[in-house]
């Protein structure tokens, strides 16, 4: 390796944006007892804090986490945009197709939901 240079690792970009629909972001605090994964749909609680979506809260989806975060941390979320369904981290028992209609109400559009799988790869 050349002097003054060091290998910092590798980077593999994720193809998440599926088009040029305007992307709007915001941020919020992760609710107690929650861990949010990167590209996981989230809900907004009555306390104003964000929680990971579950199979039971799909209809209440609020956005998509742009990054991973633990309880009490600030996390950036996508409020609008066009995304590949297979790029999302979904709760067990759901598919990207389950989120297509709830996300449309928010201005989030999913593409290729038929080929998407859950976060657990099920």
Q: Which terms summarize this structure?
A:
122 residues; mainly beta; two-stranded antiparallel sheet; 8 strands; disordered C terminus
What would you say this structure looks like, in words?
This protein has 122 residues and is mainly beta. The chain is 7% helix and 30% strand. The chain is built from one helix and eight strands; from the N terminus they run βββββββαβ. The chain has one helix spanning 96-104, and strands at 24-29, 35-36, 41-44, 50-52, 61-65, 69-70, 74-84, 108-111. Strands 1, 3, 4, 5, 7 and 8 form a six-stranded mixed beta sheet that branches. Strands 2-6 form a two-stranded antiparallel sheet. Strand 7, helix 1 and strand 8 (108-111) form a beta-alpha-beta unit. The radius of gyration is 16 Å and the shape is globular. The termini are far apart. 28% of the residues are buried. Mean pLDDT is 88; it is low at 116-122.
Cα end-to-end separation: 42 Å
> What is the string of SSEs from the N terminus onward?
EEEEEEEHE
Find the structural class using helix and strand composition: mainly beta
Q: Give the overall form.
A: globular
Overall radius of gyration: 16 Å
The largest pleated sheet is described as: 6 strands, mixed
Q: DSSP strand (E) fraction?
A: 25-35%
Helix content: under 10%
Indicate the mean pLDDT.
Answer: 88
Number of helices: 1
Number of strands: 8
Taking pLDDT < 50 over at least 5 consecutive residues as the criterion, the unreliable ranges are 116-122
């Amino acid at each position: 390796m050349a002097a003054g240079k060091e290998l910092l690792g590798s980077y593999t970009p994720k193809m998440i944006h599926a088009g040029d629909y305007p992307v709007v972001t915001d941020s919020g605090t992760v609710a107690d007892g929650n861990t949010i994964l990167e590209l996981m749909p989230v809900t907004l609680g009555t306390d104003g804090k964000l929680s990971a979506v579950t199979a039971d809260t799909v209809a209440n989806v609020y956005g998509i986490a742009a990054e991973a975060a633990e309880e009490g941390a600030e996390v950036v979320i996508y409020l609008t945009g066009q995304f590949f369904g297979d790029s999302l981290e979904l709760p067990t028992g759901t598919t990207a197709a389950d989120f297509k209609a709830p996300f449309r109400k928010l201005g989030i559009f999913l593409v290729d939901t038929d080929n998407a799988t859950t976060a657990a790869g099920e």
